[in-house]
Amino acid sequence: xxxxxxxxxxxxxxxxxxxxxxxxxxxxVMMLSSDGLHGIVPNEEIERILxxxxxxxxxxxxxxxxxAHAEGSPDNVTVLLLRAC
Length: 85
What we know:
With 85 residues, the protein is an alpha+beta fold. The protein has a domain at 29-83. The protein contains two helices and two strands, in the order E-H-H-E. It has helices spanning 43-51, 57-70, and strands at residues 29-33, 79-83. Helix 1 (43-51) runs antiparallel to helix 2.
């Protein structure tokens, strides 16, 4: 049921926003991604890309998107990397 839309802006009068609070230590990295990446690219490959040294966040995001396309992702691919400071 991954293809089923469960929430949309502008459909009803009110929106119920789900949010989560996380505590990140300084220097920790968080990755947010769409389902075009998650479940398509193996976790080991995502981890390898994220751990690559001497690679900028922009390059890591590009590589993750390319990996999803190479795996034949059937959906849009969005990746965002954040570092806590």
